[in-house]
Amino acid sequence: MALIHDMAESLVGDITPVDGVSKDEKNRRETQSMDYLTTHLLGKVGRGGKEAGVDMRRIWQEYEDNKTLEANFVHDVDKLELVLQMVEYEKCKGKLDLGEFAWVAKRIVLAEVREWCSEVLKEREHYWKDLGIEASGLDIGKSVIDRSEAERTARADTA
User: Fold this and answer.
1) Among 37, 62, 94, 97, which is most exposed with the fewest C-beta within 10 angstroms?
2) Which of 73-77, 79-83, 147-151 has the lowest average pLDDT?
3) Whose CA is closest to 16, among 73, 72, 79, 110?
C-alpha cells in the first residue's frame, strides 16, 4: 500500500492543498490515472498483468477510503514524511523557516506515528532554539508533542 498509494502522482503530479485544485477534482484525476495504470497498462501485460492491476487498484482504493488500520498507518506515515522533509530542508538551507507545513502533524491519527512525529518536532524546536530564532509552527509542534506525551503517560498508567 505504501508503494502503491502515490502511483497516480506519476501522471497527475503531487497535488497539494496550496495548488488550488479541489479535493473532488484531485480525486477524479487520481482515480482516472489509477484506472489507466492498472487497467490499460497492466491489463495488457501478458500473464498475470490483469490480476496484478486488479490487486493494485483495490489496494489503492483501500488507501483512498482510509477505513482500515493499514490505510490509517500509510496516511500517517505520509504526513510524517512531510514533517521530516520540512525539518531536513530547514537544516540544509540554514535559517529557512518552513513552519507553514507543520500543520500536517496535527492530522496524524495513530498514537505511535504521532509519537514519532513529536520526536522530529522536538528536534526542530531544539534546532531553532540553538539558532536563537523563533520559528513559525512551533506552537503546532508543541501541541503534538504534548498530546503524544499525554498518550504515553496514559498507556504507562494502564500497563
Assistant:
1) 94
2) 147-151
3) 79
Mean pLDDT (whole number) for 39-49: 88
- Mean residue pLDDT of the chain comes to 91
- Give a three-class secondary structure readout of the chain: CCCCCCCCHHHHCCCCHHHCCCHHHHHHHHHHHHHHHHHHHHHHCCCCHHHHHHHHHHHHHHHHHCCCHHHHHHHHHHHHHHHHHHHHHHHHHCCCCCHHHHHHHHHCCCHHHHHHHHHHHHHHHHHHHHHCCCCCCHHHHHHHHHHHHHHHHHHHHHC
Q: Is 134 left (phi over 0), alpha (psi -120 to 50) or beta?
A: beta
Neighbouring C-beta atoms of residue 33, cutoff 10 Å: 18
Look at residue 74 in the predicted model and tell me its pLDDT.
Answer: 97
pLDDT digits (tens, 9 = 90+) for 92-147: 998 899 999 999 999 999 999 999 999 999 999 999 999 999 888 888 878 888 88
